[in-house]
Structure formats: C-alpha cells, structure tokens
Amino acid sequence: MKRVLVCGAGGFIGGHLVKKLKSEGCWVRGVDIKPHEFSPSAADEFLLLDLRREENCRKALSIDGGTFDEVYQLAADMGGMGYIHSAECEIMHNSMLINVHMCHTAAEMGVPRYFFSSSVCVYRDMKPGEPEMTEEQAIPANPDNEYGWEKLYSERMAMAYERRTGMQVRIARFQNCYGPEGAWCGGREKAPAAICRKVAEAEDGGWIEVWGDGTAVRSYTYVSDMVEGICLLMRSDLHGPVNIGCPEYVTVNELVATVAEVAGKRIRIRYVDGPVGVQSRNFSNARIYSLGWKPKVFLKDGIRLTYPWIEAQVKARLALAR
Ligand code: NAD
Fold first, then answer.
1. Does pTM surpass 0.85?
2. Domain co-membership, 116 together with 227
3. How many angstroms separate the alpha carbon of residue 111 from the centre of ligand 1?
C-alpha cells in the first residue's frame, strides 16, 4: 500500500486531497497546525504539528524508520486578497519557514516524490485580452504581491533540491480554487466563497459590497478538478511548474451574477475600495492538458455545489447568534 503524507491536511484543498488519496487506497498521514474545521479528517493518522519548525517536519516525515512514497506539501499561511495584502510579513515568514524546512528535510530523508502547491500569483499583472502566459513567462518575475514572491522562491528551492538530490519534485501553480469546506468568512476566504456568503446573507433584491469596480478577470477551478490535477501531475514525468486552472474566465460582476442566479435572488452591487489584486488572468494549461487533464466542473455547476454549503454555514451561524 502506498504511504503518503499530506501537509496542510486541515485546510481546504488538503482536506479534499486526503479524501481522494484514501479513495485510491493509499495509507494517508495528514499534518496541520490545526484540525480540519468542517469535517473530521479522512486521514488514517492526523498529526498536529507546526511545520515552521524543522524538528516537526522530521516528525511529520518519519514513519517506521523509513519514509513516505509521496509527500504533498500544501501547508501555507494564506487567504484571499484581503489577507494577502494585510499579512505580508506573516505570509513571507511562516510559509517560507514551512517550505524551507519541509523541502530540505524531505530531500535529506530520501523522499522519492515531493509535490509543492504554488500559485498563479507568481505571474505579473495582465491586461484583458492579452495572450495566454506559459509557465516560463513567470520569469522575468514581477508578482503583484509578496505571497507570489514566496511561492516563486519556494518553487526554485524545490527545483534546486531536485537537481541536487534526485528527489522527484512536482510543482502545480493553482488558479483560484473553490468548493465546499473551504474558508467562507473571517478574512481568509477567497472571492467565490465571499460572494456566496454575501449573497446568502442578502435579501432578495438586496445589496452586496464588492471590492473594486467588478471588472477584474479571473478563472475559478472547482476543488475536485484541482485534486485530480494534483494526483495526475504527481505521478507524471512533468518537471518544472505546471499551471492548473479552468479556462473559463469571468469578471467579478459575472461571478456575482452566477451566484445570484444559483441562489435565486436579485442582487445589486455596491462597489467599494478594497484590495482587488491583478486586473486580468489568462494562462496556458497546455502542460496539464498533455496529461489528459480537463476541468469537468464549470463555474455555474461548481457554484451549484458550493453555494448550498455556504448558505447552510450562514444559517447555522445566524441560528447560533439568536
Ligand atoms: P488553507 O488555508 O485552507 O490550507 C492551508 C493549511 O496549511 C491550513 O489548514 C493551515 O492551518 C495549514 N498551515 C498553516 N501554517 C501551518 C504550519 N505552520 N504548520 C502546519 N500547517 C500549517 O488553503 P488552501 O486553499 O487549501 O491552499 C492549499 C495550498 O494551495 C496552499 O499552499 C496555497 O497557497 C495553495 N493555493 C491555493 C489556492 C486557492 O485558491 N485555494 C490558489 C493557489 C494556491
């Protein structure tokens, strides 16, 4: 039986990845600094460890005097644009320490295969209508935020360890990912979850606030497609960073319209100042497509799967407050 380690298993994508790996028959150890907030972990074993400390990375990686067949490194101090802009120092300090120690210790302990979760935040800002950017066009680098710089450094470190030690490294650059059991309030939520929450809280015909003018372009990848891409990439021969994202690009206004339609509400938008992030995105998925990956869940269907879960969280919170 394949033994795998998932770091960040108490988080959104890590939690879904654990379920997927279990469904494939793997023995899974999950590690996180906190338990999963929304459901008990599906992992065979779950360790609470702070991976900023090298000795904890060693504990996470040690198993019966041997090592894991596959290590998936998704632990990070991260959140949506609001968090990324307000917590630059925490992100650079905490995520960097996690990646420096995890990557070094994994290579030292002879891990054969190591996955690193990077982000399309490594790319520069784009203008609407610009041609697709390929992975190598992240260099020369000019990420919009410090989160992107940290990811870029950690990618390069993982590739350097691959060259030096032969540890097989696979790197995915995720586009925005959404689905049930992710952060939906408190400041770390990303745009799809935040919009679902605001729409769930609003009356029919009511108003919601949106940062910026609603024209920023993004694509959103449903979490089951993302974990499928992660697993395919991990078992492939693709070296270097690989974009994973749904090619359905929409404005924030279109995202709101989709959520409102799924919710069955008429929603009006009040545009307010806030950290919008880049204006546009458009990436090549040719590398991940070459493995046979294709997104199966497009935005409206993904929101149909996500909105009821967030609406239920909103209702449960309201009931508690009464
Ligand atoms: P998440 O915040 O839900 O999960 C990250 C997990 O890491 C959290 O459970 C957190 O507790 C854990 N963690 C943080 N500090 C830790 C520490 N010191 N020790 C151990 N665990 C620690 O985020 P997610 O959305 O599941 O993202 C997973 C990975 O994918 C991250 O590396 C993130 O940067 C990357 N990513 C996510 C998206 C997205 O849209 N969700 C997009 C691009 C990249």
1. yes
2. yes
3. 21
